[in-house]
Amino acid sequence: MNKNLFWKIFFSYLVVICLSFFVLDLLFRDEVKNVLTSQIETEMLSAAKLIELAPREKLLQQVAQMAQITRSRITLIDSRGRVFADTEKDIARLDNHFNRPEVQEARLKGVGKSVRFSDSLDIDMLYVAVAVRGGDAITGYVRLARPLHQVQTVIEKVYQSIFFAIVIVAAVSLLMALFISYRLAEPIKAMERFTERLRQGEPVGTMILYTADETKKLADNINFLVEELRDKIRIAGEEKSKLMTALTSITEGVLILGEQGVIEFASPVLAEMFSAQYDDICGKTLLETFRSVDLQKAYAEFKNTATTLSREIVLGDAEPVIMNISISAVHGHPEGEKTMIVFHDVTRLKKLEKIKTDFVANVTHEIKTPLTAIIGYLETLKSGAIENVEETKRFLDIILRQAERLNRLVDDLLMISNLEMKEMKLNFEKVSLPSAVEAVVSLVEAKAASKKIIIYNNLKKNLAPIRADRDKLTQILVNVLDNAVKFTPDGGSVFIDALTTEQEVVVSIRDTGIGVPADEIQRLGERFYRVDRSRSRELGGTGLGLSIVKHLMIAHGGKMEIESRLGHGTKVSLFFPRLNKGESS
Amino acid sequence: MEERRHTSLHYEQELQEVKNALIYLGGLTEKAIQTAMRALTERNTELARQVIREDDEINKMDTEIEERCIRILALRQPAAIDLRFITTAIKISGHLERIGDMAVNIAEKAIQLNEEPQLKPYIDLPRMAGLVEEMIRDALDAMIRADLQKADKVRQTEQGVDDLNEQIFRELLTFMMEDSKNIHRSLLIMQVSKNLERIADHTKGVADMVTYMLTGKNVRHGESKTSGDPSE
Predict the structure, then answer these.
(1) CATH hierarchy code of domain A425-583
(2) For residue A288, which residues of chain B lie inside 8 Å, CB to CB?
(3) How far apart are CA A348 and CA A322, in angstroms?
(4) Residue of chain A whose Cα is closest to the Cα of B133
(5) A–B CB contacts, 8 A cutoff, strictly below
(6) How far apart are CA A486 and CA B7, in angstroms?
(7) To which H or E segment does residue A272 belong?
(8) Which CATH class for the B9-215 domain?
(9) Do B26 and A291 touch (CB under 8 A)?
(10) N or C: chain A end with fewer CB closer than 10 Å?
(11) Which pLDDT tens digit goes with each residue over A106-165?
């Protein structure tokens, strides 16, 4: 129930009612009074005339009786104004009545009247006087006086009924106000509740009102607005989720800064990137979050020049991340320019770049070493050592060895580059592993025997055939076996085993050599990577052997795995895919 | 510092600027130490020269922070935590500036060391530098995030740096006793180690100031176990 509305209606009703009764009162109060007074007046006049007609002698005796009948005070006045009879007062104490207005009027017109307030009775008195004529001359006056009690009573009665009427009408209007305000307020209340629920974000349906007036129209409009709002929210939500999906799926981190340099938004990728260092980066400044002088400098420069800039900076302390950042302005914000920073992680790219430059440096170094030796010995020969046959022979041996090493290196490099460019043509055919292994074992046997290393070839003759390029397979096995022999101290042993699974044939070559530290196994396939640089170069390697094996295995559709324990030996497993029945040719 | 506590937005901004400048200075010194240590371990003289060049910026930043703080003191008459923030900012900035100078010292020693063959692979020194860098990081974190625990952690780590300094000293002593040719290089390395130890002291000073700023309690001389005097 709307109290406010109710009171407004009720109060206005009350005002109208009171006003109308007030006007009624103004209009009729004097009217009623006049009508009543003149009525009384006429009555008293006729009474006075009757008294006047009465014989003079009897009059004095009967005057009291007459006063009772006419319910008036009767005063008899002679022509000079002296009172000689009064029904209520002592004549001795009454003054001359000649100047009373009613007497004067009666003297002139025959009849006279006057309404005066009587102090003694505290009420209006009506005086009526009639001249008593004896012949032409006035012999006296009969005056009747009556208090206007009756008029007062009637007016009071009228007021009373007016009051009752007001009370009744007010009661009725109260009921009506209740009813009307209820009828008016109910739809408004319903709309209020509806919009309140909407404001608090509760799910609201459509509002239905059982009225047909203006409130219905309003309710329809509200429904329309709600529908529109819901649509807008849905569209905004969809847009946001699209944007978020885009931001989450790209690898670049995105940051949006407010005008004051405070982070307003960080894409999930970025937030995750720094989740270990910073719990919540929104609401912080760039400096607080990244504490990177370079980033701050870049931002300051962008603020000065207002042109998009991109720069490479290093972030993070424990594990530095190289980021390529680009800073640009976000337009279309009336409340101030925002700034967007896009972070692109280039750590891996940088690492690759470094590997590349390292490779070039390594290659030149590897080529330079034998060349220096060759040039050095040639120069010595030229400057006279050639005379000494013994020396010459020794030098030429060295030169030849170095040239061969150079040749090997170039061959290996060529092969690696072919493999990496995927330009190498492999002639796949059906190969029986045991025979290939046997051939290779016979190649390295001499070297093994010189170090008193025994090679145990445990391959069974009936091992499943594989699909491979025979030459490349030989090269793979030579490289691995040669390594095994090379890095095994004198008197050790090398074991060759095979395992057949459903999809592949695994050949493992295990030695009892020096082994590789666990954290360096990962890097064994890298070009020119040597665990112990000085020692392995002495052993005549190019540093490309395992790298070639790794690439060749990939070209064969297989893989290479290395397990090792430092000081206990290394196990290289070669996974060859099995030959399918259909392609036995 | 909570956001928007002051009716004057401008005042708020001035405080934030001081804070930002401090973080910036912190970042600069952090970088200076890192670069100086890299110059030493990677034997890269160019990096060392870079540290010496960039020290100018650190000094400028220190003066700037001081001027800003004095301006605020004069114009705003800060009270309570703001007053503590401003006064500690001046001291922290001083500590950071000294740390920058020590990074320069290390860089200078690195240049001299790089001219001679390496005495031995650096093992304890980078570890010490790692600890010191972590301390600076934590001290700045403590300041930015109003994190008392980080400040406590800095005070605890300082002991580890002292121990490492001691260990390096003993190790170098044996080198010097072995061969008198080692003395020059050993002394240089010892100075690097000493500088790192003093950086740790200054960092502890920063952490103490942060604790004072946050709590109003002075922890500088109560539970301190420092052997060196950070103000020397």
Answers:
(1) 3.30.565.10
(2) 20, 23, 144
(3) 9
(4) A317
(5) 28
(6) 79
(7) helix A268-273
(8) mainly alpha
(9) yes
(10) C
(11) 888 888 888 888 776 677 888 888 888 777 777 888 888 888 877 778 888 888 888 888
